[in-house]
Amino acid sequence: MKKRMLALVLAGMMAFSMTGCSGSADSSGPAAKETAAKGAAEGQEASASLPQKIEMQVPASAGGGTDVAARALTAYINSNFDSNTTVVNNTDGSGVVAMETVRNGKADGSQLLFFHTTMCIKTATGVYDHVGHEEFKVIGAATPVEKGGYVLVVPTGDITDLDGFVEAAKAAGGSMMIGVETGGSAHIMSGMMCKELGIELKYVEAGSDTDKLTALVGGSIQCALVNANQAKQYIEAGKVNALACFSATEEGGRNSLIPDVPSFKELGYDCVFGTYFYLLANPEMDDATAQAILAMFDAAAKDEKTREILEGAGMAMEFVPYEKAQATMKGQQEELDVVCAELGLKK
């Protein structure tokens, strides 16, 4: 039954690609997906056989937003397909070990990399000397559903809004410390934010979002940009003040997890940054195997229960059609190359 389901989903994906559909919400409902899959299955069958066991390298700590997303997707896959996918949290070398494990690994689908925009940043800053869209098989690229992104937080105290933060930062003359994970998304966003707000901050290596929040409450740093999923519990507990959040697109928008926190855009600052997720493999993987794998992850991302989990973590995503995945990653890489050069972050 599971193999039949894989054949149907893959056939639907192939038909979807040939018709040039965009993958919008209008065509993602259960009835529409079932009809498309069954119709396509009448004329063709899946042409790839996936391994029974898949190891998915995730360059993120357990419990964080990326880990939650990876485990939500794989939970659906393991319940509905023959391939058993295991998440391996591998942060060694700031994620480089995980990336190299897959780039130099097997091309049969048994080794995958699930990461996001941070990978492009590591390339743009010179932390990682390989280019994702050129030296990996780009199986899938997923864009965010959430309109709001990372949130600026400070310890509870005198600073309660963005104007107060800007004033305090200017008064500190560049000595206010902001926690970052060097070469990570928040590092880039911190630079973009400082440039847009017209302030100078002192960048301090603080690790993951969880580590940043711990350092913030402990007084080791004075501010940080963190994932809303991580920040929410600290905000609700009264341990930090949330001042503003990045928007995922130029249209602006708040983060649904913290709806009372305004966006930088609505406060008059053009702070926009969208985190894309990428599913990658050894560059020698064939298209049929790649499409079969994407079919599983696309079905997982569209599943109602899985989507609820992803939305709860602020990680809901939509995969672009297979033929657009590589170009999507290429476009973001080129944009980040420019931004990192402008911010002087290129090593």
In short:
The protein starts with a helix and ends in a 5-residue tail after the last helix.
Q: Could you name the CATH topology of the largest domain?
A: D-Maltodextrin-Binding Protein, domain 2
Instruction: Outline the low-pLDDT stretches.
Output: 1-46
Estimate the mean pLDDT confidence: 87
CATH architect. name of the largest domain: 3-Layer(aba) Sandwich
So what's the CATH class of the largest domain? Alpha Beta
* Share of β-strand residues: 15-25%
Task: List strands and helices in order, with pairings.
Blueprint: H1 2-19, H2 30-41, E1 53-58, H3 65-80, E2 84-89, H4 96-103, E3 111-116, H5 117-125, H6 132-135, E4 137-144, E5 148-155, H7 162-172, E6 177-180, H8 185-197, E7 202-205, H9 209-218, E8 223-226, H10 228-236, E9 240-247, E10 277-281, H11 287-302, H12 304-312, E11 317-319, H13 322-342
Parallel strand pairs: 1-2, 1-3, 6-7, 6-8
Antiparallel strand pairs: 3-10, 4-10, 4-11, 5-8, 5-9
Helix pairs in contact: 1-2, 1-11, 3-11, 5-13
